[in-house]
Amino acid sequence: MNKYESIIIIDPSLDEQGTKAVITKFTDLINGDGKVENVDEMGRRKLAYEINKKSEGYYVVYTFEANPEFITELERIYRITDSVMKFITVRKDV
After folding, report:
1. What pTM value is reported for the model?
2. How far apart, in whole angstroms, are the C-alpha atoms of residue 91 and residue 14?
């Protein structure tokens, strides 16, 4: 298993309960195939450029271990989740 870091930007128009539901959804998804080491909720931040006519986003950083094949599935689910505006997943060098 490799170590990864995944950053997602969640739509800021979601209420607090909706945001927590999205964070929990992805934490559980990652724990299903790997192991979440840390979830860092950075909160609402101003975006460098507008995404979907929004100038802010709710940033969440996941640090986890998983199999390389799982990353493809994780990013597919990021893409089809309407509340995720942007994401990036990178492999961390140990």
Report:
1. 0.89
2. 29
